[in-house]
Amino acid sequence: MWKPNQPGSPNPQTPEPIRPSTPASTFEAPSRPAAPSVSTPSAAAPSGEQATIGKSLIVKGELSGSESLYIDGKVEGAINLPGNRVTVGRNGQVAANILAREVVVLGKVRGNIQASDRVDIRSEGSLTGDVTAARISIEDGAFFKGGIDIRKPGAAETSKTSVSQPEPVAVDA
């Protein structure tokens, strides 16, 4: 027979103490850093990995790597991220040649861009330099000064200075 006051048995008259719980929305596992949020749609990297250069950072030199990059600060030099996306944010100022799979310009870029897929210059963006890409998009209000070379995806790169001469054709009189 059950007796309520026995040691080791729960007392039905004493409720369980209420323990404060942390809401799931504010808890983050310490072993995994949070991914940076980006206000522009489609600016996140497909792999989920994206590095960010903040507003107050100034980078001089060559940037290379294997993840996408969001630039909101100043970068001078060269950016070499083939197979990844480079996004120049609204506050971003880049004075560099950029080599990437995809480039999105929301800020200011001074330099040539070579993209294996696409270059997207948004309405508030500014680009001064030549573009080599398979696709290019320039929104109304964007500033662009330079040349455009559209390449088919996967096509071997040829030199811009080499011009093929037509072969002479014999004409019967």
From TrEMBL:
Region annotation Disordered: where it falls in the sequence: 1-50
Pfam families xrefs: Bactofilin
Source taxon at top rank: Bacteria
Segments of skewed composition (Low complexity): 29-47
Record field: compositional bias (Pro residues): 7-20
Cited InterPro entries: BacA/B
Chain ranges passing through the membrane: none
PANTHER family according to UniProt: HYPOTHETICAL CYTOSOLIC PROTEIN, POLYMER-FORMING CYTOSKELETAL PROTEIN
Family membership: Belongs to the bactofilin family.
Annotated protein name in UniProt: Integral membrane protein CcmA involved in cell shape determination
Organism: Granulicella sibirica
